[in-house]
Description:
By secondary structure, the chain is an alpha/beta fold. It has 3 domains: about 1-90 and about 195-205 and about 220-260, Rossmann fold (3-Layer(aba) Sandwich), CATH 3.40.50; about 100-190, no CATH class; about 290-365, no CATH class. Helices cover about 30% and strands about 20% of the residues. It has 13 helices and 15 strands. Strands 7-8-9-3-10-11-13-12 form an 8-stranded mixed sheet, with helices on both faces. Strand 12 and strand 13 form a beta hairpin. About 40% of the residues are buried. The structure holds iron/sulfur cluster (SF4). Iron/sulfur cluster (SF4) binds near residues 267, 305, 316 and 335.
Amino acid sequence: MTLLDIEDLAVTFPVEGGTDxxxxxxxxxxxxxxxxxGLVGESGSGKSVTARSIMRLLDDAxxxxxxxxxxxxxxxxxxxxEMRSVRGDDIAMVFQDSLSALNPVMTVGEQIAxxxxxxxxxxxxxxxxxxxRRKYVxxxxxxxxxxxxxxxxxxxxxxxxxxxxxxxxxxxxxxxxRQRVMIASALGGDPSLIVADEPTTALDVTVxxxxxxxxxxxxDEFDVAxxxxxxxxxxxxxxxxxxxxxxxxxxMEYGQTDQLFExxxxxxxxxxxxxxxxxxxTEGELTTIPGSAPEPADRPTGCPFRDRCPAAxxxxxxxLPEHVVEDGHVTHCHLYTEGDDPGDVSWxxxxxxxxxxTVDEATDRTTATEVTDG
Length: 374
Ligand code: SF4
């Protein structure tokens, strides 16, 4: 079942007295129930803006879409009151910076318990009066079912000493512990979908690996889907069932993770994959895609990747086409138009990002030369 179904999303930030900033354009995104879907791209690709549009957290932006459905209902047709119940009950968000996302003057146990009280399916069996007495007369909520659930959730996300940690303030915890608290808090409302925006970026690699394992396990155990925003294809390969690759506000390619890793179709995806050390064409050498992504206001017409793409040719200044590579695997690239058989294209040569670009007169396409040692 498709949980989240977005078609043709465009997000623009108006600038008073200046040029509006088109952050995201023509984005399609689907997340199936129970899966982990990776949304990957470099900084400025529009992944976080797309994520925030799902929670309707873009107050200053103009958002439009052909379709923006969650469980078949248009999220943008809901009132703000209805959205408040969607946030947490149905869709929860884990932010990258846990220190600013958590309340510094509340213990983490209280913060999770609050989510459980508002959104979770817990029989509090406490009147407002007894709750107030617990909190302000005895100074604690620790006997409340929501508190006990908070401690349980901390244990579930791998916190070693959940009772102690529940009574701690965010600044008293390590980065890894805080990120686990954020995940516990997201689970507190029993959502069907968690949107996790770079949840492990600020952590060291061993903590990152353990939190990613935990996320994978929790999604299976709680039957929760996740949209995992990341710039790291290594994280995608370890964690995600399917993936959408974004570049400069547009979708370049999407499919099942093994489809993209085994047979990437888009030159940008190929370039990204070559930048993973294990997949570098020359052992021991890291390769990069030359240049940098354009500012939103300076994007070239047609394919936004064309100033960096060694395979760019005349047609690339036209609007991007959609090409189905195989069932569930789609790319947006002119190399596949005009009846071209992708098998005729020398993909390896085409994406030799380190090589000098040359023009093939027969096809009028720019291709790159092989990289030779020395
Ligand atoms: Fe974009 Fe053209 Fe390169 Fe395809 S070949 S990625 S459309 S510039």
